[in-house]
Amino acid sequence: MSVNEDDVRKMAVLARIAMPDEEIAGLVPELNNILHWVEQLGEVDVTGVEPMASVIHNKQRLRDDEINADPQTAGGVRDKVLANAPMAEHGFFGVPKVIE
Amino acid sequence: MTNLTDLGIKEIRDGVRAGSFSAREVAEAHIEQVSKAKALNAFLIETPDHAIAAADAADKAKAAGEELASLAGVPIGMKDLFCTEGVEARAASAILDGFTPTYESTVSGKLFAAGAGMLGKLNMDQFAMGSSNETSAFGNVVSPWRRNDGGNTDMSPGGSSGGSSAAVAARLCPGATGTDTGGSIRQPAAFTGISGIKPTYGRCSRWGIIAFASSLDQAGSMARDVTDCAIMLEAMAGYDPKDSTSLNAPVPNWEAGLNADLKGKRVGIPKEYRIDGTPAEINALWDQGAAWLKDAGAEIVEVSLPHTKYALPAYYIIAPAEASSNLARYDGVRYGHRELPDGAGLQDMYAETREAGFGAEVKRRIMIGTYVLSAGFYDAYYTQAQKVRTLIARDFEQVWQQCDVLLTPTAPSASFGLGEKSNDPIAMYLNDVFAVPASMAGLPAMSVPGGLDSQGLPLGLQIIGKELDEQGVLNAGLAIEQRAGFTARPEQWW
Hints:
Strand order of the largest sheet of chain A: 1-2
Strand order of the largest sheet of chain B: 4-6-5-10-11-9-7-8
Structural class of chain B: alpha/beta
Distance between the termini of chain A: 41 Å
Order of helices and strands of chain B: HHEHEHEHEHEEHHEHEHHHHEHHEEH
Low-confidence stretches of chain A: none
Radius of gyration of chain A: 23 Å
Mean pLDDT of chain A: 92
Number of helices of chain B: 16
Helix content of chain A: 25-40%
Largest sheet of chain A: 2 strands, antiparallel
Largest interface: A-B, 54 and 71 residues
Strand content of chain B: 5-15%
Oligomer: heterodimer
């Protein structure tokens, strides 16, 4: 499979990256080279093979149902959470207006 | 007097304990070297106060007759991927400019609790995506090594942990943290003539490490010899309930378990790693490595890992897919850079922020990841890659019936000049062809220096072990280290 400029533009929208046209055009051959290269995986017989999402044999753990059990991940740290925000007001993240 | 910056982790630890020198002297000697090494661009941020405070604490404990912790008095470098409380963490990306974590990553916190001091944050490939340290938003890292042709071409320290490898090789620090998603500890270690180990996936907590590809990311240690790697890794590893993929297994005392006598061990030589285009010098070193391990008492057996050639393309689907998801969080709302053109709405702000903040390689991988996860292509690319991953892991499970560890070259080339490969993404990706299979299977693997090539540049040998058998990997590494007698070091030009 190969991609054209329209496909790449659509991907850029999905990925929320505002790419100018020349960047889109430059990516078309690069992405096609990479996609062509990874397509060799198609020749592997995977009949009956389960996809692997994780290498560890652990079961997904649930934490204890206890509020603020670990102080490092506990609540009550609003100011720390907001400390790095480009814009924070009244204890909230600030973003541009979304309702006209 | 001994040059304190020539000492390794063990020598510093033992010297401070014995009172041969103070931790303060060690810290000051390293701080001075760091401040003089700007030409390497290995450190993004220098934190001399942190290193001094840890050193003074070690000296105070020593004076009070207290038992010193395992890294008391040892100054280290910290890859910029680790969140460090109060010290900027940017993953070498402009999109995290100004991000100062309000918490400490589990691994850096454990190192500090063990007495280590931090000399600074180390440059790297942006978001750990790269194999040459040319994708940092803050400039390339330059290897301290140069070719022996009398020229002064700037060489790659490897990547993504290239600030770490350059700093350790240049004697700016005796050890540094690295992270390895598909070779990012082992390939830079090989390029700079140092040792580096990536433990079993889940040994080191990922909590507080800026995520790239979560099913592959694993922290590890980089230092100038195998013993130092073992000491440092011991301080980094351990169960952490805050990481759902953390292994709940006791951390062995790897340093105490070091043993280069390999009698009764079988070393596998996987025939699929003998690929076209590998320089003869690298294959010769590989043969030499097998001879060294045989000399250490091991039996050498040829083995087969039939799906090896598919590991790299499968990785370049799975890692970008996970990255495209992980990096969705950089939206200009909660931290880092925000790009807000006049009159822009929320969606525009997201897209403009990401266009301005991400580097070219990061965008390339986000785009690939977005594509392979998109409706209509998901099964053909992503699911197929996950199935191939199962087969790669199965190859390793089967091979362990014939051998205890595997020996391979670490990388298919020595270091190359900065700029010599950066125009061809796939040529760059091929750097990790020998490193990626172990990452895909979550296995412990390390690189140790084996010798120099005809250009005078270091070459590394890789040892891959069974799940949780870091000891077997370290022991084989030690056997090679003792026989290789690698004492070469870069001549100081910086």
